[in-house]
Design goal:
Elements: E1 10-21, H1 24-31, H2 40-53, H3 55-58, E2 69-76, E3 80-91, H4 96-114, E4 122-132, E5 147-154, H5 156-159, H6 167-178, E6 183-191, H7 195-208, E7 213-217, H8 228-235, E8 238-239, H9 241-252, E9 265-268, E10 271-276, H10 280-290, H11 296-301
Parallel strand pairs: 5-6, 5-7, 7-10
Antiparallel strand pairs: 1-3, 1-4, 2-3, 8-9, 9-10
Helix pairs in contact: 2-4, 6-10, 7-8, 9-10
Length: about 300
């Protein structure tokens, strides 16, 4: 199976449709509830629920997921039965296979119940009608320009040349390789753990260079030299607590040490500043969470609202 451990939980929804062709006489018998094997509508609903829940047992590469809701609708027309199965979940991966499997099993159950009385019976089609959920639904489609980004690596040892920068390069590579159409890196600085120096560069890039986003890496721990949050707090107009809380919450589900990061985030005029930890693993996980959803913030800062 594909590794989905780096994905964030989002609302997932999918609806599938099956079309069964049959004679008009059979439709009349269904409406009059004169079926020899019982009520096909209730049988379809039960079968769809069973099929959706057991998808991961039947399809080799499907993940076992928590299903929050299954709904089945069966509609009768002149010579057609339409089955629609919708599935909903808050999880890391989509539910289209659950909807399709539930729809398929419901269609087969109906076929089984009708085959003794209708020799022209056929399952004409099974298809996905719609699905929502995942990062692609949160990609900002109305950005009128590229987001300009400055990356600050904050570390005495990296500044002195005794340690190789990995976290800053990871941020840069992620933006260049995956979000090149949305972002432009216009600044990359390696700074010491010094409040005045960090403040100076935040102000320089926000006030003079007017960058949209400043991402810092490092200096968010408990040591005496870890002062990135303090420097950031002195420069911002508004804290954006939800961003930092989400980063810690996302990380905490993957390591019990995430809660030890003191990083904050906030805005200075129209610049968004986000503190990330210094470790490459923590940076990678934080970017998994932030991108691309964070791009919507720049429409808000630009006056476009929600």
């Amino acid at each position: 199976m594909f590794d989905v451990s780096n994905k964030a939980d989002t609302l997932r929804f999918a609806i599938a449709q099956a079309i069964i062709k049959l004679s008009s006489e059979t439709v009349d018998l269904i409406k009059k509830q004169k079926m020899p094997k019982g009520d096909i509508i209730e049988a379809a609903k039960i079968s769809a629920a069973l099929g959706a829940k057991k998808t991961w047992e039947l399809i080799p590469y499907c993940h076992p997921i928590p299903i929050d809701h299954i709904s089945t609708q069966l509609s009768l027309y002149e010579s057609i039965i339409e089955i629609k199965v919708s599935v909903k979940s808050v999880w890391k991966t989509g539910v289209e296979m659950e909807a399709l499997t539930g729809c398929s099993i419901a269609a087969l159950a109906v076929y089984d119940m009708l085959k003794p009385i209708d020799e022209h019976l056929s399952i004409e089609s099974i298809k996905l009608l719609d699905k929502i959920g995942g990062k692609r639904d949160f990609i900002e489609k109305n950005l009128d320009k590229k987001i300009t980004v400055a990356i600050f690596v904050i570390s005495d040892s990296t500044f002195n040349g005794t340690r190789v920068d990995k976290s800053g390069k990871m941020i840069s590579d992620r933006l260049k390789n995956t979000y090149a159409t949305n972002t432009e890196i216009i600044g990359y600085e390696v700074l010491p753990d010094n409040i005045d120096k960090i403040k100076t560069y935040i102000i320089k890039y926000s006030d003079e260079k007017k960058v949209d986003l400043i991402i810092t890496s490092g200096g968010t721990g408990f040591s005496k030299r870890d002062v990135t949050p303090e420097a950031t707090k002195m420069t911002i107009d508004k804290e954006t607590n939800g961003i930092s809380e989400a980063i810690r919450s996302y990380g905490q589900r993957r390591t019990p040490l995430s809660m030890l990061s003191r990083g904050i985030s906030g805005t200075r005029d129209k610049t968004l500043i986000i503190n990330l930890p210094g470790s490459t693993k923590a940076v990678s996980e934080s970017l998994d969470l932030l991108l691309p959803s964070i791009f919507h913030a720049f429409n808000m800062l630009g006056g476009k609202g929600h």
